[in-house]
Amino acid sequence: xxxxxxxxxxxxxxxxxxxxxxxxxxxxxxxxxxxxxxxxxxxxxxxxxxxxxxxxxxxxxxxxxxxxxxxxxxxxxxxxxxxxxxxxxxxxxxxxxxxxxxxxxxxxxxxxxxxxxxxxxxxxxxxxxxxxxxxxxxxxxxxxxxxxxxxxxxxxxxxxxxxxxxxxxxxxxxxxxxxxxxxxxxxxxxxxxxxxxxxxxxxxxxxxxxxxxxxxxxxxxxxxxxxxxxxxxxxxxxxxxxxxxxxxxxxxxxxxxxxxxxxxxxxxxxxxxxxxxxxxxxxxxxxxxxxxxxxxxxxxxxxxxxxxxxxxxxxxxxxxxxxxxxxxxxxxxxxxxxxxxxxxxxxxxxxxxxxxxxxxxxxxxxxxxxxxxxxxxxxxxxxxxxxxxxxxxxxxxxxxxxxxxxxxxxxxxxxxxxxxxxxxxxxxxxxxxxxxxxxxxxxxxxxxxxxxxxxxxxxxxxxxxxxxxxxxxxxxxxxxxxxxxxxxxxxxxxxxxxxx
Length: 500
What we know:
By secondary structure, this protein is mainly alpha-helical. It is about 65% helix and about 0% strand. It has 20 helices and 2 strands. A hairpin with a 2-residue loop joins strand 1 and strand 2. The protein is globular.
């Protein structure tokens, strides 16, 4: 924390220098359209001290669980695809004599249609950053969560009855599942303010849950095979409806109606003596000075209680002073190491978007995101060709299904090590080098070791890439325009994913 208590809230001192990244001065916005959309009236955020510790723990644990089951399930496509092929999804698109066969159970036309389903979902997930940020900033996380549960419900119903519907329900079904994930996931970020001293841990848990959610379809495939293929997609997605139903239920009961206040908002509210004076109420007692003073003393006493509660959230004086100094030195060191910190801070979003800083990172993101999603969508097809063995490709696919969520979790300490201790130039060079190595390994035929090495690198590279791009945007463009600039990068990359 950058604040520490000496004797009272008015004695809190600013330790670090001013910067756009300081949460004490500026709340990070997830709204990509920023001031382009007029603000809507909303209730004030709630202070963590107003909610019991037990309830806050339950809220965080609940968010981690439902993110695990809903945030990014569409990225488990590689595990779901074999089931869809086995169920004959889009088999009717194959030519009557199947002259363009890829393998024993599919054809090119079927492959393209299934991959279009995943590509559409991947694009939707990225473009969805635009409406999610706007809804979250204008309304509340509860509204976002309920919208997400509704979208997940629609997607599950489309998918469950797609085989019996007169129209193609698979693509819209996967599309709505992809839309629901970000609404549920991003709206959970504000829970990091439930325990300010452990905000990093909470965000890491939520991010790990997102990465691990791709394993849902892996477990479904295991159940599908164990049931002798009787647990069809219809049965699975009807059973999966319990997830959005429970998400909606906890949003209306357990989860906070409004966002939690940031540390800066808590401190600003508590240390402001103007809160001791309420003209709208005080004027009722204008003729009774004794009564008026008694009411104001009660307010001051309440404010001091809030000070104590905030202090307990942030840590005691000794802990705060030591933590402040260490964090200040660490952040200053990271800024100096990055080599790009503040390059475009203070510029308007339009000026930033027109700059080479934005154009080059957008081109890089477009290329890498297309490669990543293409690899996920076609891994079995690629290795059927490279290994000249359908059975070997299935083994590689199975390994990938398990490695993808595990790699997301295992890479967390690696990501922190790289981003905190190396320059942005080094990070980008590392991304390009690893991406090139992945491309080379993906060209080596008849080599299972190259295939498995490629998958391991890919599963570690994917979360590093996504985090590095957001880290670059924060360091170069600043948090004031983060939502608009980063949202535009991801949105453009998502739309151009249709190039595959």
